[in-house]
Model the fold of this input.
Amino acid sequence: MKEKLNKLLWGAASSSFQAEGMWQQAGQGPSVIELDQPDNIPAFKQGADFYHHYEEDIKLMKQAGLTAFRFSISWPRVLPDGTGKVNEDGINFYHNIIKTLKKYDIEPIITIYHFDYPLALIKKYGGWVNRQSISDYLSYCQLLFTQFGGDVKYWITINEQDHVVRIPTRLGFKDHDFNKHMQDCYQANHNMSVASALAIKLCHDLLPQAKIGPALSYQPYYAASNYKKDIDAAKMADLLSQRYILDLQCKGKYSKEFKDYLKMHGVKLEIPADDLKILQANQPDFLGVNYYSSNIVSNLPANEKQGIIEGSPIPKKEYGLYEIKNDPKLPTTKWGWTVDPKGLRVALTNLYQTYHLPILICENGYGDEDEINDQQINDDKRISYLKAHLKELLNAIHAGVPVLGYCIWSFTDLVSGHNGNNKRYGLVYVDNQMKRIPKKSFKFYQDFIKQVNGDV
Ligand code: BG6
Done:
């Protein structure tokens, strides 16, 4: 077991628009975040100012004992119009990050696209909804593989496609009404999946040593009771939240249940003849998993609202099919996310049994407000969260799930994807002046890594 753990990547994760700051500066073009998160733009303008603090942050990562750092490249920072003219300042910025990580023996894990899709492509042709998006994504991948491939072994094609597809504003629509945009959202999903498969092919052709896969937000959906109607509802919630994408990307197929579902809603996808062959032939090397919490699911009678989907930003119910809720027996964060460490083991085991791929945990963490007193941050709740989840991770590994690594979300505090500056996840506190102060959880992770690596 010790040998196995020694080989794992022990890291942390971040994303460009949440961490970098320098919003639309140094040549960066606008992104869809303007439409998705208009209220949080002032916070994103500064982020955690990673743009200017990356050296200091990477030194701190070394001090914590991290052996990997997952970060995303901002597509509009390197290609301000999404395609065409390259912004050399952006390219140099990412070269410098990779060089610094290498200097400290920290493995870079690059997310190619983490939510901040170039606004220019949405204005030009509607973004992912249009098939042109596939070739533009591939040209962007080609640029990254050529520029950074010599130093980067791990690549994530797309972060949380399951969220992008079900949050219409992340695709560039002006509202969250999934009922209205369903046809376009599922077409975007198809296009993104083909783009991801072709990126896997390109990566394998250009960088035979590299490993590449998607990262999904995977959560277990437990049935609220043993009644068949709740068990069926849970299966449906699982299918419609995540499994339809995994089936497509890891098996190259649309399941019968999902095809029936699309038909029921009158969704007709444009699927050129070769697409499924491309998906079958180019499967991921691993599955990236972002795990935070779990849900319970019960049947939701149709009443007079058959087929209507509700919940924002992510659908939580569909009349006639399912309703997703929190398990009242589990504690929650201040933002109502359940804390369910066993769910991590369940997620890993389910995924491995179904898709037989190694797993890289790309995100796992605890959001809190974190008080600072005398320059100390005693984030004990985060420590218990991490401790319990790491225990379940080790249990899953022990039970035979092949795990490549584990990344905590996040290393420093950064701007939350939905809740602005006050929802902190970091092992390192970032104050208003952008000063970095390691929290108690920093020491916890440092000790954990030392222990698994046999250094104590
Ligand atoms: C994941 C995203 O959904 O969860 C991250 O990949 C995000 O970008 C993280 O920050 C936590 O979500 P939030 O909304 O609490 O920041």
